[in-house]
Specification:
The structure is a single chain. This protein is of the alpha/beta class and 523 residues long. It has 21 helices and 16 strands. A seven-stranded mixed beta sheet has the order 3-2-1-4-5-7-6. Strands 11-8-12 form a three-stranded antiparallel beta sheet. A two-stranded antiparallel ribbon has the order 9-10. A hairpin with a 2-residue loop joins strand 9 and strand 10. The longest helix has 25 residues. The protein starts with 26 loop residues before the first helix and ends with a helix. The N terminus is likely disordered.
Length: 523
């Protein structure tokens, strides 16, 4: 492994993921739900941005100035290409953390994000990050950090170590890293077949090993096979961050804010008896066996009065990001699947069914006749955002504008940037399904859009108008690469069958999905 990688997997590129929690717009409702003042984000930084899809989409979809670094030059090159294409304010580098932190041109930041980095780096890098946060995060600024957590990883940690050791010691060096991962998984499966005492003491391990074999090998390489891999107790992370002078604010996972779907009554009562908020979080991780935390921390927390909190949360805007009929009134929390009450959620969804931006106050006013109190509307919004049916939205300009400087139409300001990066992503969809998100100026972030939907939109941009034309456009792309649609798990060989299925998909897209994408100003 090359020295510049510092033990991090560099032979295999990271996946093209978009992570909603990195979108700074999500800070507002989460903070207000906990009665905290939130900052306006003018400057932001992502450390270890991977392929840079999250950074670039968030930069293109807002007026925020983004900075970031990822040590892998191949990944940084990809990220820089998208930044050039969008024309957004994104300055992205392939520097080590130490070199990046010592840049003389870095501004102070309102927001610093680390998604899936903290658990996979050395202590030396952690010390550098904490010093950087202390120096460069503004007073009132927010840190987003996600990491593998104990106790949830305690049982599987020995198996992860064995997998990594097998790939390093036993795996054939010349066979490529993916082959070494496959061999390690096969070895682990054989180990489970001899019924070791470790598996008997941890009965869920065998099933977990089987599930690994179904996952993307590029993801597995970065998740399980780095030299550094350190799940951490919440309190231990708190100790690390003390020198940065920041405090825990709240979870970035909206579903974590809703106790009834995560805790039974006895557990909730037990936790409510714990006065210290940091210790309560530690105990809560044991109650739900937390594996992965996504948290907001803040430099200088300030509390709002109930009046201020309710006024500000009422001003926050949201938008339904899927067809209303796709919303499933069920959600998974730590205690299992919970059913959303139709009497509460159906009226709220009715208000949002046109996929237009609405403030929470507007929603609450519209459902007053259904006797749904404001607090219940807020909880429903939290759950719908956590379930990815709803997204926070950028506030549209009010007319007439009484304060023009504070009344910018942020959606219009960034529409051209979004169009440019989306076109580039859609063109890449011609050859792969690696990138399944597009930028929405409405949500200030990414919206999941599958490959065929991207190709249909590319056909629309090419001036084609009918479903038959869109289907033929996509078929020409697939056929040129020898690709076929699947039916019952098998490729459909005849052009007629493929085109017929594509016409069906295009009609469904036109009727169901295209109106949503137009409302979100993706196309």
């Amino acid at each position: 492994m090359s020295d510049w990688s510092a033990g991090y997997v560099s032979e295999i590129d990271y996946t093209f993921g978009y992570y909603n929690e990195l979108n700074p717009l999500r800070i507002k409702i989460a903070f207000l739900n906990n009665g905290l003042v939130f900052p306006e984000i003018g400057t932001a930084c992502e450390l270890g941005f991977g392929q840079g899809l999250s950074t670039n989409i968030n930069a293109a979809a807002t007026v925020t100035e983004w900075w970031g670094t990822d040590f892998n030059p191949t990944q940084a090159s990809c990220a820089q290409e998208f930044a050039r294409i969008s024309g957004a304010k994104a300055r992205l580098f392939d520097e080590s953390f130490e070199d990046f932190f010592n840049r003389a041109d870095l501004p102070e930041f309102d927001y610093i994000g680390l998604h899936g980095i903290w658990s996979w780096i050395s202590d030396a890098n952690r010390h550098s990050i904490v010093e950087f946060i202390n120096r460069k995060l503004k007073v009132g600024g927010v840190l987003y950090i996600s990491y593998n957590t104990l106790p949830g990883w305690a049982a599987f940690a020995p198996m992860r170590h064995l997998l990594s050791e097998h790939a390093e010691v036993i795996g054939a060096k010349g066979s490529g890293f993916i082959s070494r991962i496959d061999d390690a998984l096969l070895f682990a499966d054989k180990l489970m077949s001899v019924n070791p005492a470790y598996a008997r003491a941890n009965p869920l391990i065998g099933e977990r090993v089987k599930k690994l074999s179904e996952q993307n090998r590029h993801y597995l390489a970065h998740e399980y096979f780095n030299r550094d891999w350190h799940p951490m107790h919440f309190a231990t992370l708190g100790d690390w961050l003390k020198d940065a002078k920041i405090n825990y604010a709240c979870s970035a996972n909206y579903l974590e804010h809703v106790d009834p779907i995560n805790l039974n009554d006895e557990q909730a009562e037990f936790l409510n008896e714990i006065q210290d908020p940091m210790f309560r979080e530690s105990v809560r991780d044991f109650v739900i066996n937390q594996q992965f935390r996504k948290d907001y921390w803040i430099k200088g927390p300030r509390k709002l009065s109930d009046l201020e909190r309710n006024e500000l949360i009422g001003e926050q805007c949201v938008v339904l990001v899927c067809p209303q009929e796709d919303v499933v009134l069920k959600v998974n929390g730590a205690i299992g699947e919970a059913t959303m009450h139709a009497a509460v959620y159906e009226p709220i969804l009715k208000v949002l069914e046109d996929n237009q931006i609405r403030s929470i106050a507007e929603i609450a006013e519209a459902v007053k006749q259904n006797e749904i109190p404001f607090a219940q509307v807020v909880q429903a919004v939290m759950i719908l955002i956590g379930a990815n049916f709803l997204n926070p939205a950028q506030k549209p300009a009010q007319k007439p504008a009484q304060k023009p400087a504070q009344n910018r139409d942020q959606v219009s300001d960034v529409k051209a940037q979004c169009d440019r990066i989306n076109h580039a992503i859609m063109r890449k969809a011609r050859t792969s399904a690696d990138m399944s998100y597009l930028a929405s100026p409405v949500t200030g972030g990414g919206i999941i859009v599958g490959r065929f939907h991207q190709l249909f939109m590319l056909a629309i941009q090419s001036g084609l108008n009918t479903c038959e034309e869109w289907a033929d456009f996509v078929w020409q792309i697939l056929d040129a690469q020898g690709q076929r649609l699947l039916e019952a798990g098998k490729p459909m060989e005849s052009p007629e069958d493929n085109i017929r299925q594509l016409v069906h998909l295009a009609n469904e897209f036109k009727t169901k999905n295209l109106p949503v994408f137009r409302a979100l100003q993706i196309v």
